[in-house]
Amino acid sequence: MKLRQLGEDRLLAQLLPDLPRAKAVHTGAGDDCALVEFRGARDLLVLKTDCVVERVHFSVQASPLEIGWKAMMRPLSDFAAVSALPEFGLVALIVPGARSTSWVRQLYRGLKRAAARFGVSIVGGETSDTPGPAALAVTVAGFVEKARRVLRSGGRPGDDLFVTGRLGGALRGKHLRFVPRIRESRWLTEDFRVRAMIDLSDGLGADLPRLARASKLGFKLELERLPLSRGCKIDNAISDGEDYELLFAVSPRERKRLEQSWRKQFPRVPLTRIGKLDQRSTINHQRLPRGYVHFQ
Amino acid sequence: MKLRQLGEDRLLAQLLPDLPRAKAVHTGAGDDCALVEFRGARDLLVLKTDCVVERVHFSVQASPLEIGWKAMMRPLSDFAAVSALPEFGLVALIVPGARSTSWVRQLYRGLKRAAARFGVSIVGGETSDTPGPAALAVTVAGFVEKARRVLRSGGRPGDDLFVTGRLGGALRGKHLRFVPRIRESRWLTEDFRVRAMIDLSDGLGADLPRLARASKLGFKLELERLPLSRGCKIDNAISDGEDYELLFAVSPRERKRLEQSWRKQFPRVPLTRIGKLDQRSTINHQRLPRGYVHFQ
């Protein structure tokens, strides 16, 4: 069978379960980031690798400054998903030898600018030649206090589902210029009990089922409530992908206080209740067009 | 200017100096690994990303099991260079959608086998489609006790230079099957004052000058002493690359004790004194064919 017939989720489901896992590993492959114990430190070490590939995640014409920005911000969006703070970045740069050095310098400017925005020190830089398209793998290391970490798996039946920002249409430009919701995520876990969270990278249609599945639940989505980007329809909000917004679950008991405090804290960022988690059975009644899934 | 006219060392020299560096960063981009402080832990957090690309680091015909092995072992060889112990691995896998799932499963078997050899837990696995050749970026996180870390930069004039194993001819197969010298490195720093160390990935002709330059010194090489792999000449030992052996500097006062204890500890691994570090001036008298350097 070819990879593109299998799809990324099923591929990873085949590869990951039998990975050996040391006691130090709280959360391994399968959530947004890895969370591990490190040498007696009180906080958890948080690790994430992500990659972008030319003609898959960006076009040949894209500005190298924006590509660098995106390559760094994607793993940082996963940090937002677990409510972690990033500290160190490593960059593996795979680029054709015929590419101009000024292209690479601009790419690095974008990487550095994105890193600086969140106080990340770039501590490693590898480069390799390639006969194919350019690609970057960025790894970020950082930390989260044990009490503040949020996984995909903590949702409970009846929890409200919220999304930040607006969904859909990211390929018109936002996917190269977004700012991960780290500040919002850290604010949320300072004062609220966020039970499950994920960042929307493949589209709500792919990522909401992932969160629900990890929590062993189904969901009810109120499609008419979805916060649409300008010019977008419900289908765009579900399937376009690359929104890099947060989707999270909190108890309805916190709804009112959350909505009020959010408006004061982030007056320019919408926070929208879009549905709720529900017993497993309901997942079959909910038919979603799929978000963007690799190899499909 | 094109990348391949500039070369990897000069490219990185242009990109890296103005990277912002936090106080927590002991050693950033430019040495074999990054060494950073983490949240009050006594030991240093060690981070390394490395990548392998089809048709650059392995051929299209190479066994996926061996490719996976190599992709994991390369960053582990950098761990050996700083005398660190690896704990966690993350894998970014860039692979064409038309590749068979069994190829990917074999690749993962190789990755897991290599990780298990050194007790590394694979805690993150990303995959991406690509219209080009397959590529893997593997990141490893681990630790080193502050007193045992070794950099490239600690060499002093008159230090003996030693290499482990034999050099040259790695492309005949060793480059896909090598075992990083982590055990040997840890043994060395338990009982000896290793002043500078590097792993030989690009060939002695490229890596020895790097160690000397980082130590602000030159070197004298006794070419006739080089430990050659079977069927290899001096040029192979200098230029073939991918030996993944250790090159290190110790005071001549430790020479005798080191050579004797090594023979007892590692009777099957040669340890060879190949020259010494010297004042900067001598570097000009030493003409070396270049090792393998990316983009050239």
| Overall average pLDDT of chain A | 91
- Under the CATH scheme, which class of the largest domain in chain A? Alpha Beta
Poorly predicted ranges of chain A? 281-285
Instruction: Report the biggest beta sheet of chain A as strand number plus sense, adding barrel if it closes.
Output: 6 strands, mixed
Number of strands of chain A: 11
> What is the share of helical residues of chain A?
25-40%
Please identify which CATH superfamily of the largest domain in chain A we are dealing with. Answer: PurM-like, N-terminal domain
| Number of structural domains of chain A | 2
* Shape by Cα distribution of chain A: globular
CATH architectural group of the largest domain in chain A: 2-Layer Sandwich
The count of helical stretches of chain A stands at 9
* Termini separation of chain A: 13 Å
β-strand amount of chain A: 15-25%
**Which series of helices and strands of chain A comes N to C?**
HHEEEHEHEEEHHEHEHEHE
Which chains have the largest interface? A-B, 83 and 82 residues
| CATH topology type of the largest domain in chain A | 60s Ribosomal Protein L30, Chain: A
Explain the overall architecture:
The structure is a homodimer of 296-residue chains. In chain A, the strands form two sheets. Chain A has a six-stranded mixed sheet, with helices on one face. The first copy, chain A, has a five-stranded antiparallel sheet with strand order 8-10-7-11-9. The radius of gyration of chain A is 19 Å and the shape is globular. Chain A contains nine helices and eleven strands. Chain A is 30% helix and 24% strand. Chain A has two domains: 14-148, PurM-like, N-terminal domain (60s Ribosomal Protein L30, Chain: A); 160-284, PurM-like C-terminal domain (Phosphoribosyl-aminoimidazole Synthetase, Chain A, domain 2), CATH 3.90.650. By secondary structure, chain A is an alpha+beta fold. Chain A starts with a helix and ends in an 18-residue tail after the last strand. The relative contact order of chain A is 0.16. Chains A and B meet through helix 1, helix 2, strand 3, strand 4 and helix 4 of A and helix 1, helix 2, strand 3, strand 4 and helix 4 of B.
